Amino acid sequence: MENNQKKIYRAVRYDKFGGTDVLYIKEEILNAPKAGEVKINVRAASINPGESAIREGKMEKMFPSAFPSGQGSDFAGVVAEAGEGVKDFKPGDEVIGFSNDRNSQADTVIVSRDQLTFKPHSVPWEQAGSLFVVGGTAYAAVRSVTLKKGDILVLSAAAGGVGSVIVQLAKQIGVRVIGLAGKANHDWLKAQGAIPVEHGEGAEQGIIAALDGKKADALIDCFGSGYVELGIKLGIEPDRINTVIDFEAAKRFGTKTEGLSSASTAGVLTELAKMMAAGKLEIPVARTYPLTEVKAAYNELEKRHTHGKIVLIP
Ligand SMILES: NC(=O)c1ccc[n+]([C@@H]2O[C@H](COP(=O)([O-])OP(=O)(O)OC[C@H]3O[C@@H](n4cnc5c(N)ncnc54)[C@H](OP(=O)(O)O)[C@@H]3O)[C@@H](O)[C@H]2O)c1
């Protein structure tokens, strides 16, 4: 089997739960796409914190694993082959997509045609390959707190992968965002029209000062560690608080937990891709790594200070 016939492909794998040291690149034989499926040569596949948690065995109840396991939902690439019955995608088409099988961190992936949309030509590969997880999660979170023009939204991890999309979706609605972020990301938030507040000690006082006597209408938590409780303390109604990470606090305070699962469709992906083509949404790319440097990429992500996305390039 020669690589140039694309019968062998390289993919990220691990055989047991653990830290980034369990990750390796494996060569495997690639099947042809079945009816309704499309084979894509991956050009970019971003990485997400949830994948670390799954690999560490912390989410086994919610997302059970079988070994060897792969990683990744996000990707963008070029169609290599369309299975029987697929009429809308053909070889050479540039697409953005998602895998439901944790295997997009590879040089080739096969998915159902329902998990793809066309990549607008103006959207860079790295951004396109970062869109699905953070875009869908941000879309669901913003929808859940029913934002309207003039609202004030408090947002934790505002310059991270999910947060940086929420900031831009909220801006489109005309919402004022008070965004928690490290100092290094304050200029980016200001450029988006948001009010930056430094996280950590003094965050609560910083938010109160930014509110300047007004009342916060909604809070979206992308970090955990007390932000849901802070929202309650600020007098925000529980049904206008959404967390994508602190499910225990959500249960305790009766808040929402809308995330990717309620927006993981090609329809949402298409809507977000159109916003990118129209210049209304941009995914900040912190850094790219070759696929073979997947361990280093996750080591950086797991420091929890990424601005936007880290992307693997096969
Ligand atoms: N439920 C779902 O469907 C779903 C889907 C996707 C992600 N998630 C979860 O959502 C969370 C965010 O994901 P992500 O991809 O945006 O992560 P990320 O890109 O790694 O962002 C991490 C962010 O956390 C910020 N941060 C660090 N310490 C903080 C603190 N004390 N208070 C507030 N912010 C702090 C960092 O800000 P600075 O760099 O500015 O310090 C950084 O921007 C993760 O926990 C992830 O697992 C859930």
Automatic annotation (TrEMBL):
GO terms for molecular function: oxidoreductase activity. Keywords: NADP, Oxidoreductase. It is an enzyme of class 1 (oxidoreductase). Residues 18-312 form the Enoyl reductase (ER) domain. The keyword Oxidoreductase applies. The keyword Metal-binding does not apply. It comes from the Bacteria. Its EC number is 1.-.-.-. This is NADP-dependent oxidoreductase. It comes from Mucilaginibacter lutimaris.
